[in-house]
Amino acid sequence: MTDIYKLARKNIVDMKAYSSARSIVTKADVFMDANENPLEPELDILGDTCINRYPEPQPEEIKKGISSLYKTKIENIFMGRGSDDAIDALVRVFCEAGRDSIAICPPTYGMYEIAAQIQGAETIKIPSTADFDIKPENILKNINNNTKLVFLCSPNNPTGNLLNRNSILELCKKLENRALVIVDEAYIEFAGNTSSLVDYTESNVNLVVMRTFSKAFSLAGARFGVAIANRDVVSLLNKVRAPYPISTPSIIVIKKMLEYIMSDEGSKAVKNRIKTIIKNRNSLMEKTGKLPFVEKVFRTDANFFVIKVDDAKGLVAFCREQGIIIRDRSNEPGLENCVRITTGTEEENNKLIKCFAKWSKK
Ligand code: PMP
């Protein structure tokens, strides 16, 4: 047993996980144990898929695929409806309401704090450095014995930059037996292959890496993401998840995508698409940077970027009138009058530039 169990909420450690029908038996001739409808729906929606039956709670075949894709052991994988599910499960396992806290380094992804609020846990905010990186000593100085989770996002949303990996690993070492360090790598594929910290989850018991199929793999609608962590963390996360989190249609989509990504053709195609998005992003950044109302274009390692303008609110409202939605991030610390732009298709990017040009002439 690792010290992970000492960090987790006692009632979660002590409770027995719900034993759903398909967590006990997954293969048989006749299933009469789960109160399902034995008939396929009258309307043939998905062909031969047994949509009338509950799916496997954590489908083995997908786990195997994930294990080859991310080069990690099967026992280290937790799967959910997007990485948002993993964030929620982590906070529920480790933070006792009214006592424990999480730490975040704003500006960063908003769901960490929301998950903590839902759980009744405090959020300790340790602002990132001027270039949106982390300083381990700052984090260590500001957290306390009841801080169970430190959420880091690399590349960070909304700023787009990768965090310094040595700082993250230093933090992991210093927090060993004290807290988990969660690295949200939702956008990591856009930052190059060698940037992920998945490999380090083996040697750092308190490191959790989250990955998602929503971004580089174009499957936001399928809702699928994973947490890669020590087996004890995975086993605790499995106690709080929904009995059947991943729907049968999603399983079909994810299986197909995994097969494709693992093939020579598919892996090349995905890489090429990422290259195209980065090329288009760079071109959009360059064009945006030339506009008179743009004060700064921030460097990024993701499929989006932030610009500082003279009137963020006005610009976002104007774009909206023209049918284009970009995100005002002005309320985030260090991002006054800043707007986040997600790279679109070439055509969409051109529309945005035209709209920006109109705004400059106003
Ligand atoms: N992490 C970050 C940093 C994100 O920006 C998002 C979505 N915007 C998520 C996690 C959630 O992604 P999903 O649940 O689709 O995997």
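^ 4'-deoxy-4'-aminopyridoxal-5'-phosphate complex. Residues 82-84, 109, 153, 157, 184, 186, 212, 214, 220, 225 surround 4'-deoxy-4'-aminopyridoxal-5'-phosphate (CB under 6 Å). The domain at 4-262 is CATH 3.40.640.10 (Aspartate Aminotransferase; domain 2).
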